Amino acid sequence: MQNLIRTSDFTNEEIISLFDDAKLFLDMKSRDILKGKVIVTLFFENSTRTRSAFEIAAKRLGAEVVSLDVGTSSSSKGETIFDTVANINAMCPDAIIIRHSECGLPGTLVEYVDCPIINAGDGTHAHPTQALLDLFTMMEHFDGKVEGKKVAIVGDVRTSRVAGSNRKLLPRFGLDVCFVAPDCFKHESNDHKQYDNLLEVIDEVDVVMSLRTQLERHNEIYFQSLNDYAKDYCITEEVMGDRDILLLHPGPVNRNVDISDEMLLDPRSKVLKQVKNGVAVRMAVLKKLILSQ
């Protein structure tokens, strides 16, 4: 049985096959591929896009979705997450989708269940379906010709699970990833080039991926306000100029902090396209994992 805990759980060939399905699912039509299947969602962190995208994806495929309110679940009464998942597994779901603040936790649950586990984000560690939809968006934009394209990931890369998954996935398909961040937000690894300012590399990149500044994930105060951060790292018309660059963001966007209002309306911005692609890619993931059991 296959799970999706990190992007390395799928081979390149499997990902290309996923994307072939996702292209078909972009019509957003309802299907009965997973009719009679039951999918459980467990979100221990707040989520709008990821949770709704998974639920809509499941329902588009004909599956039933059980969304557990973890705030009123037995976990609030002292039950461990492992017992919670074991009890859910005893009800024989066909897949469990989980988001949790603890890095690596979804992977430790695999031995407690008899169905696929899908990681919808774990702490600062990984967000595999986001990275997959980001890659899919780039492939669609560049007609599949992504090898050699340069991607600048801008912002709080240290705590971003999106950056963590993308820095591992994108190079597998020939994309060159670099980071742009203040010293306090830079990634500890030296596997990728890191810059202090986007202007240092803006003329070399094909894609700019802005990230949400996650001040809540830091123990120290690095900026007095988000506006102080935005002065140097907000993606604006002035920064982008007339360059032919694809602009992405995993959401939620802090307007005029991560990306300016004007750039969100710019045709180069594909933030809402990412959301639609996210449903199609998650439909493909659910189909693959559930039907392959």
UniProtKB/TrEMBL annotation:
EC number: 2.1.3.2
Ligand binding (carbamoyl phosphate): R49, T50, R99, H127, Q130, G251, P252
Molecular function via GO: amino acid binding; aspartate carbamoyltransferase activity
GO biological process: 'de novo' pyrimidine nucleobase biosynthetic process; 'de novo' UMP biosynthetic process; amino acid metabolic process
The keyword NADP is annotated on this UniProt entry: no
Function recorded in the entry: Catalyzes the condensation of carbamoyl phosphate and aspartate to form carbamoyl aspartate and inorganic phosphate, the committed step in the de novo pyrimidine nucleotide biosynthesis pathway.
Pfam family, one: OTCace_N
Residues of the Aspartate/ornithine carbamoyltransferase Asp/Orn-binding domain: 147-287
Domain Aspartate/ornithine carbamoyltransferase carbamoyl-P binding: 3-140
Subunit and interaction comment: Heterododecamer (2C3:3R2) of six catalytic PyrB chains organized as two trimers (C3), and six regulatory PyrI chains organized as three dimers (R2).
Gene: pyrB
Descriptive protein name: Aspartate carbamoyltransferase
Binding-site list for L-aspartate: K77, R161, R212
NCBIfam families, per the entry: asp_carb_tr (TIGR00670), PRK00856.1 (NF002032)
GO cellular component term of the entry, any: cytosol
Family: Belongs to the aspartate/ornithine carbamoyltransferase superfamily. ATCase family.
Keywords: Pyrimidine biosynthesis, Transferase
Matches recorded under InterPro entries: Asp/Orn_carbamoyltranf_P-bd, Asp/Orn_carbamoylTrfase, Asp/Orn_carbamoylTrfase_sf, Asp_carbamoyltransf, Asp_carbamoyltransf_Asp/Orn-bd
Pathway(s) annotated for this protein in UniProt: Pyrimidine metabolism; UMP biosynthesis via de novo pathway; (S)-dihydroorotate from bicarbonate: step 2/3
